Amino acid sequence: MSIPSINGREGEASSLLPGNELSLHKVQLTALVHQTVPLCAAAMAPVLMLLGGFLLASPVRASDGAAPTTITCLTRGVDLRKESADVLCPADCPLWQFYVFGNVVYASLSSICGAAIHRGVITSAGGIVRVQTLPGQENYSAIYANGIQSQVLTRWASSFSVAGTKSGALEAAGRPLSTARPSRDKRLKKLLEKKVGNKDCKTDIAFLIDGSYNIGQRRFNLQKNFVGKVAVMLGIGTEGPHVGVVQASEHPKTEFYLKNFTAAKDVLFAIKEIGFRGGNSNTGKALKHTAQRFFSLENGVRRGIPKIVVVFIDGWPSDDIEEAGIVAREFGINVFIVSVARPTTEEQGMVQDVGFVDKAVCRNNGFFSYHIPTWFGTTKYVKPLVQKLCSHEQMLCSKTCYNSVNIAFLIDGSSSVGDSNFRLMLEFISNVAKAFEISDTGSKIAAVQFTYDQRMEFSLTDYATKEKVLSAVRGIRYMSGGTATGDAISFTTRNVFGPVKDGPNKNFLVVLTDGQSYDEVRGPAAAAHKADITVFSVGIAWAPLDDLKDMASEPRESHNFFTREFTGLEQIVPDVIRGICRDFLNSKQ
């Protein structure tokens, strides 16, 4: 466990390029250092006392002895002038704030600290990162890792990679590398890490254990032993996995919730105390109960991290489990099935649905199903299951801003735009849409073009794959005409969002316009806001700033954007996506 400190020198601000006019944040290094050093010193005092009362003996140093450059959460690779540099990322940067393109090799418009967390070089506690500038490339890939979803990018002019430094953990804390009592420090550090838990496996997990007559008392106890081993290997802690247990039998019973224990020894004791209930194996009833009632803020669920149910089934369920699986997916829960002692050929005639595993899991791709032949000798099956449960990038059913939003684009097709600029607007729409996981159960995209009239190019329910949406965007034909933005907003509120107003996804409207509207926009925009539609306004060229602000949702400063040229739309893409994710997370609080 590393203890971050912020340290730096005012003179090193020259290694940063000034931000462009579209950036929402500018690096003000001197103010950052002056403001954060006292705060960090105060926050670190109790920890330093706990570690033996050592003082901050020296400034933060990189592995080559030079002091690293202090940066902010939003500093990008393109902001560094040096080919290779050691930088110090601050602690507690909100993960939604990061925008990252690629994996291993990152496009230079990516956040450096976001890329470092995504790569696993540092955690949200911050630390020293070595940044290496690389040439640009094509086809930056996307992957979910360590709480951050990186994005696809077709091409970019420059790239960078991130790596750790040899002395990063200790020196990021500003602590001497050697002390008078190293063994005591190591013990204290280990105790702190144990309390915090495995940060790389930060999940909320419900173990749904089989308590029916199918399993019986003896195998029930063996099942408890296995669950206890899994819980220990997960690395339960305050900042690591949290677990609870529900017992399935005739009627489900919650044995303990996520909030009850944050130490492995307490969880083990609680599991040991669970009594066998008996009765039918109503696993479907128990899974639905867990999905609907277990994962709540009152019961200790944490925002923004994967929710998992691990269902143990000895034999087969007595009731229908398929519907419960659907309910769990709707709640953004990743269902794993651990099956033991599958029904034999002779027994299959007694099973209500022999395909119950495939119908209940999050995805029928083999990852979410796990088979153990018998409850005897299960130790070798613990680690592979734990590895699955800690693979955040594989949790396809988790509700995120990328798979749980409806986005409608309202496109200005007036004569002042022109055909070539209209193509740039469509390219902007495609680049935003590429960031989202579009499917019949995930995010959905719609497009409306307007002049004096409105034309529904495609609705939220027309296309269920990203490929079809992008193809439809490319096929939009330029209308040409006047500009009635207010009527267009009313049309979209009524015809695009009206049919899905009671749906599970959060609704967003992105308005693109290059000029003055001939009608009033404030009233239609207010009606959209009242209908729980978050509006982002994007203005180009002659679009009046007052109109952009009137259309934008609150806070208006972060929901409206402007660029002088249509070519500047490309730079706004990350800001719009980041804004959608920020608002999505805020709506869940």
Question: What are its keywords?
Answer:
alpha/beta, 589 residues, single chain
Write up this protein.
The protein has 589 residues and is an alpha/beta fold. Helices cover 31% and strands 20% of the residues. The chain has helices at 29-50, 112-119, 168-172, 182-196, 216-234, 264-272, 283-294, 322-330, 356-360, 382-389, 419-433, 466-474, 485-497, 522-530, 545-551, 569-587; strands at residues 69-70, 84-89, 102-103, 105-107, 127-140, 144-145, 148-149, 153-163, 204-210, 242-248, 253-256, 307-314, 333-340, 369-372, 405-412, 444-450, 454-458, 506-513, 533-540, 560-563. The strands form 4 sheets. The protein has a 6-stranded mixed beta sheet. α9 links the parallel β13 (333-340) and β14 (369-372). α5 packs antiparallel against α6, α5 (216-234) crosses α10 (382-389) and α11 runs parallel beside α16 (569-587). The radius of gyration is 27 Å and the shape is globular. The two termini are 29 Å apart. Mean pLDDT is 82; it is low at 1-63 and 167-182.
SS-based class: alpha/beta
Mean pLDDT: 82
Tell me about the biggest sheet? 6 strands, mixed
Query: Which spans have pLDDT < 50 for at least 5 consecutive residues?
Result: 1-63, 167-182
Number of strands: 20
The number of helical runs is 16
- Proportion in β-strands: 15-25%
What is the terminal separation in angstroms?
A: 29 Å
Helix content: 25-40%
